[in-house]
């Protein structure tokens, strides 16, 4: 169950990052509210996952899901730049996440 909490927490990190961008520096109320709610939920689920998962694994997976997901959302929905170097960096992050998961004893 901890891994499910962790994945959902990571997905919520993508949500709050996207809506933080949409909030235009917290000047727009609805995106700001979504940002705050998603942050609280993400942190709460991360805390629940950390009850049984190691700190290093859970925090790294959480930030990795958020980083890779935000990268993809930025490209797909915000028209951000795609380059070989940026894609390679994301591939390396994903490879690191896979190794962490495979070497976790949980």
Detail the topology: elements first, then pairings.
Elements: H1 2-22, H2 29-49, H3 55-78, H4 84-103
Helix pairs in contact: 1-2, 1-3, 3-4
Protein name: Guanidinium exporter
GO molecular function: transmembrane transporter activity
Keywords: Cell membrane, Membrane, Transmembrane, Transmembrane helix, Transport
Compact description:
By secondary structure, the chain is mainly α.
Task: Report what the structure shows.
The protein is built from four helices and no strands. The chain is mostly helical. The radius of gyration is 15 Å and the shape is flat. The mean pLDDT is about 95.
Features:
mainly alpha, Small_multidrug_res, flat, 106 residues
Mean pLDDT: 95
Helix content: over 70%
Number of strands: 0
The tally of domains stands at 1
Transmembrane segments: 27-47, 59-78, 84-103
Pfam families: Multi_Drug_Res
InterPro entries: EmrE-like, Small_drug/metabolite_transptr, Small_multidrug_res
Protein name: Guanidinium exporter
